Structure formats: C-alpha cells, structure tokens
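Team,

Forwarding the record for the chain on the shared tracking sheet. I've put the sequence and predicted structure together so nobody has to dig through attachments.
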Amino acid sequence: MKIALGVSGGIAAYKAAEIVRLLQDRGVRVQVVMTRAAQEFVRPLTFAALSGEKVITGLFESGSEQPNVDSAVEHISVAQGIDALLVAPATADIVAKFAHGLADNFLTTLYIATKAPVIIAPAMNVNMWEHPATQANLEILRKRGVTIVDPESGYLACGMTGAGRLAANEAIVDAVLRTLNVVQDLAGETVLITAGPTREPIDPVRYLTNRSSGKMGYALADAAARRGAKVILVSGPVALQPPTGVEIVGVETAAEMHDAVMTRRGEATVVIKAAAVADYRPKVVSSQKMKRHAEFALELVPTSDIAAELADRKQGQLLIGFAAETENVLENARQKLLAKGLDAIVANDVSQPGVGFDSDRNAVTIITPTEVLDIPASTKWDVAQKILDTVRKIREQRPAKVRS
C-alpha cells in the first residue's frame, strides 16, 4: 500500500518527517511531494532518507533547457500508483488551490490528476484558519469527499494562541488508515512468523533444501504489520524484499531456525510457523567438497520439531502451523493439529498446479479444533488476511495470558 505525502510551506513541515515514520511503521509506503516553499523549511534529502523513495520537488527536472519527458508526466504515473494522497501540513494557499482547481505545481497537479482518496491536515495562523475564504474553501473540499483533519488549538509559531496548529501526528495517521480501510485489530500483539526454506549442508558446495519461496510467510508478516502487530520474521534464504516495519532474523539451517525461534518465542503472543523446515539433515557434513562416485549413500537424521517444542513450552501464545501435503491433505493436517497441540493449522495441497510453492497464489483449508474454513485459490496476501482473521477470532475467544 502506497500513499503520496504532500508537504507544503509552513513551519509545521518538520512534523511531516515523523508522519512518514509512523506510516511506515504501519506498513504504508510513502512518497513525498514537496512544494517550493516547503523546501525552505525542510530539505528533500531528509524525506528521501526516511522514506527510501524519490522526493518530488517540481513538475520538471531543473538544470536543463529541455525538460525530461518522464518527469513532465510523472504526476500522472504517481496519481495512478497511490492508494491515497495526504497533505500535511496543508497551508491556506494549498487549500485554496485545491478548492478552485488550480494546478501550478506538482502537488496541485497531482490532486487534480488522482482518483485516490484525499486527506488534508491544515496548519496556519488562527486568523487565516478562521477567515471566511478558508472556511468556504474547506467546505468545498468536504463536499467533494476530501477528509479534513482539523487543526488543534494552542500556542502557534507566530506567537498567537488559537486554532491552526497541525493536528497530532497520530490523529493524521489514523485518518489515513481509516481512509485506506487498514484495520489495526492486531495492535498489542507480537507475532513471530517463520518463512522460507532451510538449507542443510552436505559439504561446502552442496545442500539439501526444498521449493519454498517464502512468499506465504512474507505476506503474513506484511499483513500482520499493517494490522498493527509487532512482527518478528525468522526467515530462511529467500529472494524477497523485507516487508516494511518488520524485524527480520535471517537463518539458514533448521538448527538455526530452531534456535532463533526459541530465543524469541517469549516475546510473542502469536507464533505462525509458515516456514518449510527440513525434516532431515545429513548426519555427517564433509569439510571438503565431496568427489563424484558411481554410487553415494547419504545418511540422514531428523531435525528438531520446532512446532512440537513450541507447543510443549507454550506460555499463553497462540500457535498456528502449516501442513504442506500431497495426499490425504485434511486427514494429515488434522492429525498434525492434534499431535502437536496447535491452535490452528493451515493445510494446502502443494501438488496442485498454480498454487503453493513459488507461486503468488494459494488455496488452503484453515482447521481449528472446532472449525474448518476452505479458502479457494486467491493471492497469498488474501490468504494471509484470512489466517489473521482466524488468529483474531481465536484471540477474542481466548485472550492472551499475562506471562511473568
């Protein structure tokens, strides 16, 4: 999910840096658009460093007699690529331009070009805020469906006291999340998620692994963070971008994953075991590359059963497992649910084409001791949301225990 954050020229522009961070903590990507006046208060480099995105400062690239064609139409691509436009702070000038359809800079042009929801947080002198022209402009915007986050009253930078101070950052962020329909129903939870494959070395060159891409676990981590949870993602080796606002703990072998999970389990209120952890590892690992032979037998020994150990040592956490099967899917999943003392298990038939391993889609059945929920083929993001809905439902029925 991505928004554009317009920053206009007022002393409250410095507060926009904290708004960027708060939105990122909730899993929202932010691209900052600055007016020329805003750059007199905060440098673009500040927002670039915070957001990790290009900061847009004008309709055309400077320093060239011939404008760059891409930059000349960038307002259209940005307008089509965002889920919302937030302006904070919004000066009286920007409010007036929005209300009357003036488009003389990138931000005002973006407003005209986007069909995404618009949220503005005005900040200005109390007399400017109370002026009939400003109030009439705000009423025009409200009638168009623009969300206005009204300013607070208090001591203003100009030395006066009254309405006009930029609303609290948390209030602005909450307005954005409501507009985006981002629920924060996992706020207060710490979710420990495992993802990806493990690699069990045979020698310095070779290893045993599986086809897991980690996409399901990463989708779960991203979705949980967006829903307000603190997320710890213990990840095997994958080729995926880490989700925003998620703590990554990188591991390679099953033993390393076991140690990482056991080290962090005490922090978690929910554990979701989405990783495809190797069931076996070579008994002996050669310190040198093994040479080719006509026949070769590799002796394997079991790895630790992380889910079973978590269940044995549970301290009030909810424990959600996965069962990747190719036959008797539901029967095998139910057996695993009961044998390992899980609160729920997500079963999927990985032999089905187009879903499961290394796919962006999945089809699963979520099984609890009292319920079976079939999730037809859909994106892994959508499946992640259904799994987290189950977590929330179980939590409502059985609140987290206070751990000493």
